[in-house]
Structures are given as structure tokens and as C-alpha cells.
Design a protein that fits this description.
This protein is α+β, with helices and mostly antiparallel strands. The radius of gyration is 18 Å and the shape is globular. Helix content is 48%, strand content 11%. A hairpin with a 4-residue loop joins strand 3 and strand 4. It is built from nine helices and four strands. It has two domains: 110 residues, Aspartate Aminotransferase, domain 1 (Alpha-Beta Complex); 67 residues, no CATH class. Helix 2 packs across helix 4 and helix 6 packs across helix 8.
């Protein structure tokens, strides 16, 4: 049998009015599709555990978010992680959630991956001294945006690589163009690639 954590109840209760029904529906969907799931709190927001981390959800001032630990293997290019933490984009109302059939399918796939012991393939670490190679489309875009260019120039090599690997990791041209535009907007605001995760852990 699964296990619910009263801290998750408290988290949902403290969430904004718009977020409570979204978080409740997500929670119910996870338990319905993974009866042995156990809840916990990690990095200040709810996580669902089943043979490792299965998925997580979070609530912010103006949106909620939901993500799978192995999201890249579940949603691929359907992921909307450029809009918000996780893969389902900015959730501001219940209708922003995928249909029940689609959401159930995602959760069941996540369960199957953990059952099979599948690991997420990580990008191999580059040597510390290796130069950061900036793709031509990013170079061209930075030349047109002074604020983004200044932020990128000030980033550490690892933070530059986070942006570059995210942009070049797109599997289609439209996805790459969308990520490039989003990255420029974030950099123009002085943000690192994973600024949303930093915000989530500090809240």
C-alpha cells in the first residue's frame, strides 16, 4: 500500500486557491496509477517515491508545476520544461493538465521505468579546462541582445554549458528556436538556466 505524508497535506493547504485543486488532482492521479507510491518532502516541495524518485509537484505564486524524475524518457520533445519546472508547463487551472488518459499514461510509464531500473542518461562531464564552444545561432542571437550578452559573458563555464546543452539538446528545429528565444529572455533578466529550481529550493 502507498503512504501519504501529512506534510504534503499541509503543503497543499497552504497553496494558493488556484493551485489546491491542481495539486490534489495530481496527487490522486499518482496514487491511482502507482498504489505503492510513498510521499515525502524534498527541497521544500512534495515528491513521490517508488523504487527511487518517481515525480514531484510544486506550487508558486502564480502557477503550479509537475515533473517526472525521468521526464526526458517519458515526454521527450513534448516536454514544456522551458515554461516552468517539470514537464507540464505552467499550470494555472485544472484544464491546463493533460487529459486523464494522457496523464495516467505518463505516470504508468514512469512506474515502468523505475520497475525496470532504467537510469537517466546524463551528459558526460567535460574536462574542466575544455573551452566552452558556443553554437553559431546563440552567438548571432547574443550579438543582437546587449543585456543577454552581458549576462552570458559573466556566467561561469558550467552555467554557460547548461544553456548551451539545453539549446543544442533540442531534437527539432522549432524546439531549438523556442529554447533559444527563452534562453535569451532569461539571460536578459540576469538569470542562469536553472533559476526556477534555485527559486524552488529557496522558497
Amino acid at each position: 500500500m502507498g503512504k501519504k505524508d501529512p506534510r504534503v497535506d499541509a503543503y497543499i493547504a497552504k497553496a494558493a486557491d488556484f493551485a489546491r485543486p491542481i495539486l490534489t488532482e495530481l496527487r490522486e492521479a499518482v496514487h491511482a496509477n502507482c498504489p505503492d507510491v510513498e510521499e515525502t518532502m524534498k527541497w521544500t516541495f512534495p515528491h513521490f517515491m517508488y523504487k527511487g524518485i518517481l515525480c514531484s509537484m510544486a506550487s508558486f505564486k502564480q502557477h503550479a508545476a509537475f515533473g517526472f524524475w525521468k521526464g526526458s524518457l517519458i515526454l521527450g520533445d513534448r516536454s514544456r520544461n522551458d515554461e516552468a519546472m517539470g514537464q507540464l508547463g505552467r499550470l494555472t487551472k485544472r484544464s491546463d493538465l493533460p487529459s486523464k488518459r494522457v496523464l495516467d499514461g505518463y505516470i504508468k510509464k514512469a512506474v515502468a521505468l523505475n520497475d525496470a531500473g532504467v537510469k537517466v542518461t546524463r551528459m558526460p562531464r567535460r574536462a574542466a579546462a575544455a573551452p566552452v564552444r558556443v553554437p553559431a545561432d546563440l552567438v548571432a542571437a547574443l550579438k543582437k541582445d546587449m543585456k543577454a550578452r552581458a549576462t552570458f559573458a559573466a556566467l561561469s563555464p558550467s552555467h554557460k554549458r547548461e544553456y548551451i546543452e539545453w539549446i543544442t539538446g533540442a531534437k527539432t528545429a522549432p524546439t531549438r528556436a523556442r529554447r533559444l528565444a527563452t534562453a535569451l529572455g532569461w539571460m536578459a533578466s540576469g538569470k542562469v538556466r536553472n533559476w526556477k529550481y534555485v527559486k524552488a529550493t529557496a522558497s
